[in-house]
Amino acid sequence: MAKKNTLKNKSVAVIGAGWAGCAAACELAQQGATVTLLESSRNLGGRARGITVHGHQLDNGQHILLGAYTQSLRLMRLVGLDTENALLNIPLQMVYPELEEGMSFIAPRLPAPLHLLLALIKSSGLSFADKMALSRFSSTARWMGWRLNEDCSVIELLERFDQTPRLCRLMWIPLCIAALNTPPEKASAQVFLNVLRDSLGAKRAASDMLIPRLDLSSIFPEKAAEYVRAHGGYVLSAHTATGLLQNDNGKWQIQLKQADALAKAQTEAQLPLYDAVILACDFANADRLLATLPAKNQAAPLPALRDFSYEPITTCYLQYAPGVRLQRPMLALLDDAGQKKWGQYVFDRGQLQPDQAGLLAVVVSVSQAATEIDRHELATDIASQLAQSLGMPELTQPIWHQCISEKRATFSCAPGLNRPDNHTVYAGLYLAGDYTKGDYPATLEGAVRSGIAASQAIIKDLKAAAKN
After folding, report:
1. What is the C-alpha separation between 317 and 378, in angstroms, rounded?
2. Are the CB atoms for 365 and 181 separated by under 8 Å?
3. What is the C-alpha R_g of the chain?
4. Does domain 11-49+61-69+215-307+416-467 have CATH number 3.40.47.10?
5. What pLDDT, in 10s, does the model give residues 93-141?
6. What is the CATH T-level fold of the domain 310-411, as seen in this structure?
7. Sheet architecture: strand order including 330-332
């Protein structure tokens, strides 16, 4: 990273206070820029934010991070978060309830790759053929450098590596859905390998699973906003950008929907001027704002965005008596939409926060059908699934429930997807978001890395302009 104060006397606007926008804002503020962070919602965090549910401060979707999320962890510490207390650190594991015909795979706290070898030897629920297939996958992927000559779907990759049906059902497919939130039949094998490379193929700590104890807004976005303000910047929530303008000197102006001090300007000259602007909103809103600019070079600014589609995620919160407690903070579940078994993972919130005892969070990924049925019916189905899988009949009757669906939770991470660069065709205008070009799928780390990349592009371009 460039030296501090590299951007002194420079003004940068970041549109969107999700994890990408907050990451970019912190990086720029650290380098001395005057940052204005704009967010259309009243809450910070974008598609990974805190909400209040029945008096509990939870999230719009239950998340899990990895030790491999080095940039997210670095920025959390930069803004003053005590990551050891804010995140529950558990070793890599895939454990199903004892009553399900699943598996138990837990990596011990040993140096890599010994931790994976012992986890495989001690694992239960896998046959010798399953274990040999897993070992073969790992060794072959390492030998290939975790790279494919040509991208394909995850299902095709598993077939090429001769993975057993049981291992695919219990491990690889759930991991694909958790990491990419895309059905394995249409998920990018290369992006899947990138995630495995940085977790299973790296140091032992990289594979650790980090479950947020606090809500996601508290973990980073809100502290990032404090950091920006402390460095002389501005954070404006409930401010919706409706258009972009660039003057003859290359300076940028942002048109706002709100009738406040910034938006009351009667002429374009009265709008604040910025040396650079980052569009850190989702790709649909980025496309909308880019459409307000004049066409350049007879080409659409971001033709690649037309190739994007969304994948949903639903989280179902179910409150039971405080004495209800799971075997572990997190368990995998055998899903089967045909039997109305929607859940893929269940989290015991009481093991994360004492005042949330008896509260379970069940995650349903890549299931469009789950987002379309009645919320009460979905919660009833999930409660029945838990009762059957865990052998706890009392779980069929929660005290209360709340289902939250994000229909545009992530982009569909298809093979060979043409993801846009952080630069646009307009000088001084950049993109940041989990959908931009990078190794990762639509994860918090992917968003953070994109925000950092956009800020580094600004630093490089402004330094080059200063020399000319």
Report:
1. 11
2. yes
3. 23
4. no
5. 999 999 998 999 999 999 999 999 999 999 999 999 999 999 999 999 9
6. Polyamine Oxidase; Chain A, domain 2 (3.90.660)
7. 330-332, 345-348, 359-365, 310-319, 400-411
